[in-house]
Amino acid sequence: MGNKICVLHVVGTRPIGGIGSLLKNINKVIDLESFAFIYAFSSSELTGDFDKQVEKYNSSVVVFPSYKIRNIFRYLKQIKHFYKTNASHIDILHVHSPNTGVLDLYYAKKYGITIRILHSHSTKYSGKKINAIRNYILQLPVKKLATHYFACSLKAAEFLFGKNNIGNTSIIHNAIFPNSFLFSEKVRNRYRFDLGIADTNFVIGHVGNFTEEKNHFFLLDVFREVYTQNCKAILLLIGSGTLENQIRHRIKELELEKAVLMLGRRADVHNWLQAMDVFVFPSFFEGLPLTLIEAQTAGLHCIVSSNITTETNITNYIEYLSLESSSKIWAESILKYSNGYNRENMEEQISKAGYDIRTEVTMLEKLYFDSLNNREYTELE
To answer: Which of 82, 212, 270, 289 is the 20 to 30 Å CA partner of 297?
Structure first.
């Protein structure tokens, strides 16, 4: 790595969604003359899209065996060997997965990595009770093994590190390149035309992995209420995941096959946001969802679960609703925007709020430098 500061980013599995986008954005902006990034995660696939994207910026990827019972001994052997062999070349460990990062933090400490950052990206252990109990137990030791605390929001900081440690936590916003998301009438018309969406159609959008916490089944119930009142309504779902087949089945049950368009995982989300008329996000829990920053930058009104931190309210284009409210109440809030509205340029507001990736990376670089210049640290409580 020469004289560069080597940072090892640890993610549980190959990153997709918000964390994947954030890490790729950071890699595009970070001073590559000063820093070298390595990404480590578990996967049954030896390579993937994330790997190809970060390798463009001279970063490297380490793939450990997937977390399966049949792989456990091979996984343990490989992770220990990795840190024993490479720790002397790594200046900073940056763990983005508290659930699975305990071994990384343990071996990093054992083999001499003195700067060990734990980064909170969520506000809940899991959407499933049994998984939440497991993750709570897994996360107990990681806070003691870390030397520095990071979080994507104050709510995520309080969740993982507690109120007493908010002052010890550095907030790194899930930031974006605002220019990429600014509203464009030309892009809107092209993308709607490509899907056969007319000017008279009312397009509701959602971006998120098909997983429990995103609450797609409630979203479909809400859309059915909207569609009952406006037969020109269309729902765009961008993403993929383990619940995809179940969601398709539910769409069929509700007889919405012609009105719900599943676009899969897309690299051009910034363009699809232009095609939407309102953004709906009924998640059970989140840290600080990057996609809500993107949607607001595109000038979209957002109807959002009240479980999500109000730190996401940057433009006053967000309305928070309880998940205990009926799907009819959610539908009424959505339908308020069915007659259209002016899509404003939100770049200044987004940047002032700290969600320009260039500003956040400058702060991150300073935090990295400061941590190395002050290796004698006080143990976090």
So the answer is: 212
